[in-house]
Sequence to fold (240 residues):
Amino acid sequence: MSPMLAIRDLSVGYGRVGVIAQASLDVSEGKIVVLLGGNGAGKTTLLKAVSGLLRPSAGSIRFAGNELVGATPGVIVRAGLLHVAEGRAVFRSQSVAANLELGLYGARLSRAEEKARYERAFSLFPVLKERRSSLAGALSGGQQQMLAIAQALMQNPKLLMLDEPSLGLAPIIVDQVIDAIVALRKAGGTILLVEQMVERALEIADYGYVLQTGRIIAEGDAASLSRGDAVRRAYLGVKA
Fold:
């Protein structure tokens, strides 16, 4: 079976500054794939290229059989690929309920389907139901992260890309976010995860890639990456 997301020989950067060089990776349906690497390795740049925010200089990005290079972010979202960026980008002056409603923008749903999507968001993150009338800006950092993920889920994505969902969160909130990611996979979701908490990420992932200075230096199932030294080398800056 072909992977849901297939990246081949991808090169991308900012202007003349190259960041990613000939990277290739697959994300299969119903799996959690983790992308690991130290600060500046190019993880966020790769996600931005997949979501249409950066134009690659070379390579291919195929999603559900269709080429994404050259597609606008809006087209990519409508195709079912959602990117939850680092930094908890929510509408702080709007309520939790309004943020979730904005997540439905452009979707043509029956009232029953719309209700089901709210129920899924609230079942994953019960605190959002409790605080649905609160302004997003009044939420804690962890609650804002939950809201950012829930907002993306309102589009019922085929593949969800999460960039550093645990960044800056208290350990108990990290556990809740990780539990929600696992629950999404159990429900058939497909996830490409960028995460600095390496051990936690490998505990829940099915497969992983290690990125160092813009190049994939290792890949394998999560258990083999945990046993090997590629991750250590990438984070310590040791050349592959």
Q: What stands out?
A: The domain at 1-80+188-240 is CATH 3.40.50.300 (Rossmann fold). The mean pLDDT is 91. Residues 171-186 form the longest helix (16 residues). Residues 123 and 129 are 8 Å apart (CA to CA).
